């Protein structure tokens, strides 16, 4: 009996070893892959040029010679099969909301990895429709690229087109670089990560506005540092009415720098994003310390305005990869993003204010000042760690080189900052005088 059990276990062990020793060729997925696409409507035909690295198609079997290189003279059938399975089955194109039928494969080519013909549409078209590689070319299929031209029948080249390129299965990190060439010569570039869903190639203003409202709302809810900054703003007040000028100042300020950054007026140096992230952490630390030191902060909207300028640059970093979906409606998309951010802030305030009132009424009712110190200290402690980490990241960059262009750009920003500071000072002075008049005109008690 014991011998039989041992034999069974030995057989199971051999089966397991045989199973795990089988090649896993079909399950090996590349880490990175870049798919290049050109989409151009011409009359009643939509031409689509696609370039894909063949290493991303692990399921196709290419004819080979004895040395393992591809038999280029007999590879056309395999390339057409790879085009159908790896690309066209994952690609859906819509004309005015109607999905286009299966396209016609016009031409396929196997290209060397060093080929640069997809730099422009004309070069790519000439390459794909030109002569293939010579029959004596020595190339391994993992080092080659698949170039293909397909054509879709369309009603008109003036239609609105949308695309859903679900190429995420080609690699763990797949990027589709797409260029849409309109009949009037205008081109729009898109960079789609993985499966980006349905993407309008020429979005209307309503679509762009809705997309960016949702983006702004989701960003304020997912941005922990922005939420912590708002939390520090709310702690001393705990009521909506005194928060109105503070939130308004923050909104106006981050709108200014967000729009300026979107139109290219912000520094594009590599050290700028880490600097802004560190300044955002500093803004939280400052607000927390002010809550601890000052019992009743006045005119907080002034310092909030300047910190809002910093947070606006932080918002702009999120939009760098998404402005491609704005189409011709850049300003509309920016304003819509701001609307989404404000809706998110109002939603957060609607949660923060009741929660803080509950905390002060039932937990620290006897020592409300102690509650402010405790909450502010916790927020400041977390922000301090962020500040240290972000300072370490910023210190990895060398000091910027002083150039004439850099000095001129700095002077422009310094002039703008001085002008903004002067405007804020005038508004603060007018507000202070208005408050004094309100206090002088207020009715006095009989004792006074």
Word description of this protein:
Mean pLDDT is 82; it is low at 12-27. The strands form two sheets. The protein has a six-stranded mixed beta sheet with strand order 5-6-2-1-8-9, with helices on both faces. It has helices at residues 2-21, 76-87, 121-128, 205-222, 224-234, 240-262, 272-293, 300-319, 330-362, 368-394, 404-441, and strands spanning 32-42, 45-53, 91-95, 98-99, 104-112, 144-153, 161-165, 173-181, 187-193, 199-200. The protein is elongated, with a radius of gyration of 31 Å. It is an alpha+beta fold and 448 residues long.
Summarize the structure.
This protein is of the alpha+beta class and about 450 residues long. The chain has helices at about 1-20, 75-85, 120-130, 205-220, 225-235, 240-260, 270-295, 300-320, 330-360, 370-395, 405-440; strands at about 30-40, 45-55, 90-95, 100, 105-110, 145-155, 160-165, 175-180, 185-195, 200.
CA-based shape: elongated
Mean pLDDT: 82
Regarding quaternary structure, how should these chains be classified?
Answer: single chain
Give the terminus-to-terminus CA distance. 107 Å
Write the layout of secondary structure elements.
Layout: H1 2-21, E1 32-42, E2 45-53, H2 76-87, E3 91-95, E4 98-99, E5 104-112, H3 121-128, E6 144-153, E7 161-165, E8 173-181, E9 187-193, E10 199-200, H4 205-222, H5 224-234, H6 240-262, H7 272-293, H8 300-319, H9 330-362, H10 368-394, H11 404-441
Helix pairs in contact: 4-9, 5-7, 5-9, 5-10, 6-8, 6-9, 7-8, 7-10
